[in-house]
TrEMBL record:
NCBIfam families (UniProt xref): hydantase, PRK09290.1-5
Any one GO molecular function term: hydrolase activity
Protein family: Belongs to the peptidase M20 family.
Top-level taxonomic group: Bacteria
UniProt keyword list: Hydrolase
Gene3D superfamilies per UniProt: 3.30.70.360, Zn peptidases
Domain Peptidase M20 dimerisation: 206-304
Pfam family, one: M20_dimer
Keyword Hydrolase found: yes
InterPro entries in UniProt: Amidase_Cbmase (IPR010158), Bact_exopeptidase_dim_dom (IPR036264), Peptidase_M20 (IPR002933), Peptidase_M20_dimer (IPR011650)
Keyword Iron listed: no
Protein name stated in the entry: Zn-dependent hydrolase
Length: 418
């Protein structure tokens, strides 16, 4: 089994890199803090005599060979970068859980034919370079190399230059290949497991999302000279529309969520009726059958609300991604292991995006969640109890062992589709 104290020690060492007040972490992608975290991770893998390599997007891999180096690999991992003043568990727990699993395989002399690899993906958070999940997206051909390399941060530093600056611009030949299964271990970043007294979240998929920018057009006029009944107030119409969006999401009762992230009124002065408002909307839903219908329905709702107030609007889709379904044969193994281990679990859909979302386009994929106390994440209050972590990583370890050693699952592992 895994050794919790060893994992805790590594977690603490990693948390010191970019550590902030109140146990927070700021380790932005391709920063000097990220470099130090990467260097430490590489050092730990080298101590285990893993074959370490870095690809042309800065993704880091560590490989433990099986008896057949040509066999398809089983992969675990996540990311090391953080958001500004984030927590010490998001991403890094998945990477170090993978390291602990591999070290436990070595210590327990587990023989396996298929290689096992651990990976840390570059710029998962998107806090410095947008969009998020650049490393996993690029290596699975969701983003072109040219697009990825040309991304700039707010200070106009270029992704490729910064990757080279920290010494992690690797080779294209080192990209992931011949991978038959990928499992990402992660904190839930939500309250559901804690609310339901469950230790393990067996993630069946990731909600689809649609990001919209809505522009409501009215008429700007003097606040004192324009009677209420003659106004075409874009902001008051937006408020009515937002209330309708909120009610629409609440009535779905299927996990649908809708978030107004930003609102900008123009001209934005105290003594003028707002003639224009731009707001953003993030809509998420995990049902593949309902997703497209819901995304059309919410746009029609917005148009109806605005038109009833005799105003006009435009809706631009910034980005969208359909719901992701993970491999049932892997989630079923996780459930079997949880039952046998007498660890309380539930099947769950992730509302947040993860590297597993892009890995799912090229190989069989699954995720394991452990609880986030208070549902807190991307903040210094982020916390997962050690007992939950230990049970969760033991479930991961047993799942990996079952995939690697059971004849039943060898035929399930198919090579990566790149």
């Amino acid at each position: 089994m895994i050794r919790l104290e060893r994992l805790k020690n590594r977690m603490l060492q990693m948390a010191k890199i970019g550590g902030t007040e109140n146990n927070g972490v700021t380790r932005l992608a391709l920063s000097q803090e990220d470099k130090k975290g990467r260097d430490l991770f590489v050092k730990w893998m080298q101590e285990l005599k893993l074959d370490v390599r870095i690809d042309d997007f800065g993704n880091i891999y560590g490989r433990k060979e099986g008896t057949d180096p040509r066999a398809t690999a089983v992969m675990v991992g996540s990311h090391l970068d953080s958001v500004p003043k984030g927590g010490r568990f998001d991403g890094v727990l998945g990477v170090l859980a993978g390291l602990e699993v591999i070290e436990s395989l070595i210590e327990n002399n587990v023989e396996h034919e298929n290689p096992i690899e651990i990976v840390s993906f570059t710029n998962e958070e998107g806090a410095r370079f947008t969009p998020q999940m650049l490393g996993s997206g690029a290596v699975t051909n969701q983003f072109s190399k040219e697009y990825t390399y040309s991304r700039k941060d707010k200070n106009n530093f270029i992704f490729c230059d910064e990757l080279e600056k920290i010494g992690y611009l690797g080779k294209e030949e080192n990209r992931l290949k011949n991978v038959g299964a990928f499992i990402e271990f992660h904190i839930e970043q939500g309250p559901i497991l804690e609310m339901n007294n469950k230790t393990i979240g067996i993630v069946e998929g990731i909600s689809g999302f649609s990001w919209l920018e809505v522009t409501v057009i009215g008429e700007t006029n003097h606040s004192g000279s324009t009677p209420m009944e003659l106004r075409k107030d874009a902001l008051s119409t937006t408020a009515i529309t937002i209330q309708a969006i909120q009610k629409w999401a609440e009535e779905k009762e299927d996990g649908t969520v809708a978030t107004i992230g930003t609102v900008r009124a123009e001209p934005g002065i105290i003594n003028a009726v707002p003639g224009k408002v731009v707001f953003t909307l993030d809509v998420r839903n995990g049902n593949k059958e309902q997703f497209n219908f819901y995304m059309t329905e919410i746009q029609e709702l917005i148009k109806d609300c605005v038109q009833r107030e005799s105003l006009n609007c435009t809706i631009q889709e910034i980005k969208a991604h359909s719901p992701v379904s993970f491999a049932s044969w892997i989630t079923n193994i996780i459930e079997e292991v949880s039952v046998e281990s007498k660890v309380p679990y539930q099947r769950i859909t992730s509302g947040a995006g993860h590297d597993a979302m892009y890995l799912n386009t090229v190989t069989d994929t699954a995720m394991i969640f452990v609880p986030s106390i208070g549902g807190k994440s991307h903040c210094v209050e982020e916390y997962t109890p050690c007992d939950d972590i230990e049970k969760g990583i033991n479930i991961l370890y047993k799942t990996i062992c079952r995939i690697l050693t059971s004849e039943k699952y060898k035929n399930q592992i198919s090579s990566i589709k790149l």
